[in-house]
Amino acid sequence: MFITWVMQEKMTTMSSHICENLCREIHADSCGELNKLGLFQELVSLSPVECRKIRQVYMQMYREDLYNNFKNVGNLGKVDDEKQDGSSSNSWAEVGLSMLMLNPHERDAVVCREALERNDVKYNVLVEIFTCRKSSHFLLIQQAYQSRFQRHLDQDILKIEPPSPYQKLLIALSASHKAHKVELSQHIAKCDARRLFEAGEGGAGQVDEAVMLEILSKRSIAQTKLAFSSYKHIYGHSFTSLLRKRKCREFEDAVLAVVRCISSPTKYFAEVLNGSLKSGDKEALVRIMVSRAEVDMEDIRKEFENKYSLDLKSAISECPGIPQGNYKNLLLSLLENTH
């Protein structure tokens, strides 16, 4: 069978011939039973770049978007699974595969929209994207969001009801991506650290909203990260420790989420992955594994092992909440593809 031969190939870039033949097999799978034809394992073994090439070639050949095809199958399957036994592992595998078909900025735009459309807005997902993406990438996210949904991301955030402190922080972070100074300033970082201290520990013990929003909106993410590092160096403890000790408003809770993501993304994602494995949050697992596969998954894996004394691959393999099947294969393949 053709796919067996493809699986034996160790090619960094797939040729057009291989792509076309694989697309023909996908198209022949009219029932969407990827596992039956062995296609699912083949597709998840590809790199994200190769997945996007498959999507491009498939669009040229059949005028159909594989992202939509896989996403629709996954969503239908989730409904069926929930009716049967409450398990949606295989369906989330299809959704994860659909995410691999998108360009990173296009995927982030879709994830942002889905986070905003929830009855309970998933602010943690938005914070991840607004803080852990390069400014050049964030601009592409905004463009993709407007192109796909005919809406403006910032405006949709401002329109959230009921109002939340996260709205102010997200808009400030959006503005921060326009602060394109390449060189970091230790002097500015120390001044910002001093302002944070004076407005917090040196003042009323609460984070001054005006100071925090000004720093977040006028500094790049990298410069803000340097300010938090300077804070710890000058005052002997992290800014997050102050927030955890003295938080008493929703604003402090929201700031803590933002600061954690900015200060150490790898630590943050390692902690979220651990929590998701324990709770069985399949959506969070696949979102992070896919989005960080091309960025820093190997660093996250090292952080996970250092923090929990367990390799992430073993944690996924041995997780009782993740049954054997396509979903587990997807997560493990994403780990393997980071080497």
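The above is record 1. Record 2 follows with the same two-line structure.
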Amino acid sequence: MAGRRDRVFHIVVLGVSGPTQVRGDLGVGKSCLCNRFVRPHKDEFYLEHINVISQSDFSGRIVNNDHFIYWGDAQKVMDGHETVFRIMEQTEFIDDSSFMPLRGSNTRPYIKRAAETKLSSSEKLMYICKDQVGDDLGYSQKLLPEGKFQVDGFIIVFDVSRVRNRTLESQMEFLSKLHQQVHKAKKPTIMVATKCDNSEEICLRECKQLANKLKLTLIETSATLGVNVDLPFLLLAAQIDKSRSKPKEISFNDANRKFTDQLRLATDQYLELLTQEVTDYHNVFLTKKKSFENGEIYDLTSVWPGRPRPRNSSGTTPRD
């Protein structure tokens, strides 16, 4: 049992990458998916991530002359135990002066190098957000353990929204070729539909057909909303380690409905909290907000999805 708890799952996230003529005007959502999975708190989620950078930033310790990003570790519960996921994203960085792919430590084309199962990058730092690049000292620093990453499984991302300068056909062709390379690695693979909160019906339909053709499990997600983000990683872990219980698959609509209900409940309870506690209308909002966040009045960790509980002067919650 201890061995099961101690295992670290090394997952790589893949998808259309490259200059504008390849990926289109927007990315396919690889970074947002990784961001939301590793750091799910709303204050740690960023919609914009790096793609076009300078040569000096490319050589910095975060990118480290690689076309992959180390996202760090995420702890999730499987079978009642904490399970660690270590996440890497394969991408392609573009020179901000030539707008062509920067020459990295691995010069193979994206589709071939993205399917590699042994990655190494000495002294590589964990990536957090785009502002960290060029200012790594201003952010938490965590090194890729031993500078090595042995891949256990892949997640292939399919963007089901419409993006200018990227056709549906070109994305399907790119992912089909990518899967051919990944399949050779003989590692468990799952397909993820991203941006389902802004999906086009035809894109989602073609995504399902492609997943069926490639015989891949498909999970529909929205990193922006935080819906169904953990599910593909947990399912992949169960494919990698057969002793793990397979989590129940849930459709995007059902997951989104559950998320909406929880959000509505949390909003109602927060408004109730304000009504009960803010009786002096001369209070400054930021001051009162800070007291809430510090738990001076209520244990706010129980606001969602449970009911807020009052705290006494000792800082503990009284029994019901």
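The first strand starts at residue 8 and ends at 14.
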